[in-house]
């Protein structure tokens, strides 16, 4: 299967950086032994969520706004 993710997790958020961090860290911990991807759908947050996400190890940022 190569390096394609086996599990995809989609997280929706809007101005909830505290909970976004908790959710992503939980997914990373729970799936650390599995090939996975985390997709965050942001509704235009202004609380620093996007800035925090772009500082993570691996990311792809696509803004539709």
Total domain count: 1
Q: What's the average pLDDT? A: 86
Helix content range: 25-40%
Annotation field: number of helices: 2
Estimate what percentage of residues fall within beta strands. 15-25%
**Series of secondary-structure elements, N-terminal to C-terminal:** EHEH
Strand order in space, largest sheet: 1-2
Can you characterise this structure?
With 65 residues, the protein is α+β, with helices and mostly antiparallel strands. It has one domain (7-54). The chain contains 2 helices and 2 strands; from the N terminus they run βαβα. Strands 1-2 form a two-stranded parallel ribbon. The longest helix is centred in the middle third of the chain and has 14 residues, at 17-30. It is globular, with a radius of gyration of 12 Å. It starts with 6 loop residues before the first strand and ends in an 11-residue tail after the last helix.
Summarize the structure.
The chain is 31% helix and 22% strand.
């Amino acid at each position: 299967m190569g390096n394609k993710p086996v599990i995809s997790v989609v997280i929706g958020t809007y101005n909830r950086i505290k909970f976004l961090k908790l959710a992503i860290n939980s997914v990373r911990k729970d799936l650390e032994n599995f090939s996975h991807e985390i997709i965050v759908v942001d509704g235009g947050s202004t609380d620093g969520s996007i800035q925090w996400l772009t500082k993570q190890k691996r990311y792809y940022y696509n803004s539709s706004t």
